[in-house]
Write a structure and sequence with these properties.
- The protein has 115 residues and is α+β, with helices and mostly antiparallel strands.
- The protein has helices spanning 44-57, 89-99, and strands at 25-36, 62-70, 73-82, 101-113.
- The longest helix is centred in the middle third of the chain and has 14 residues, at 44-57.
- It is elongated, with a radius of gyration of 20 Å.
Length: 115
């Protein structure tokens, strides 16, 4: 299955028996929903929302999102402008990414016929 966008992830697990045959019934399970705040870090609104969330708990942590375009595509990355002493770059990036997302835990599942 192809996701509807680059920010949506789908995981499908199909039960397989010892004889390598597919079961006629599979289970579709939803464990959490994730939503980018304000359209995500690649938007001005999303980056501002993430900064506002971060500054409540980590006022020393600041960043900007750098977007580069080039022949055949481009990319984006988080550039750290400041961080608390003793915090690794990886920790800072993780906090920024967490501040840019809302997550709703769930425990929903249903059986799906695979015929």
């Amino acid at each position: 299955m192809t996701p509807k966008s680059q920010t949506r992830c789908f995981l499908f697990t199909f039960p397989v028996s010892a004889a390598n045959s597919v079961s006629p019934v599979g289970t579709l399970k939803l464990e959490k929903l994730s939503l980018e705040v304000g359209g995500g870090l690649l938007t001005d609104i999303g980056a501002a929302a993430a900064k506002a969330r971060l500054h409540r708990d980590q006022p020393q942590l600041d960043f900007q999102v750098v977007v580069r375009s080039g022949k055949g595509g481009g990319g984006a990355y988080i550039q750290l402008l400041s961080k608390p002493e003793g915090m690794s770059d990886a920790q800072a990036i993780q906090l920024i990414q967490q501040a840019s997302m809302d997550e709703i835990p769930g425990n929903w599942q249903t059986d799906v016929e695979l015929r």
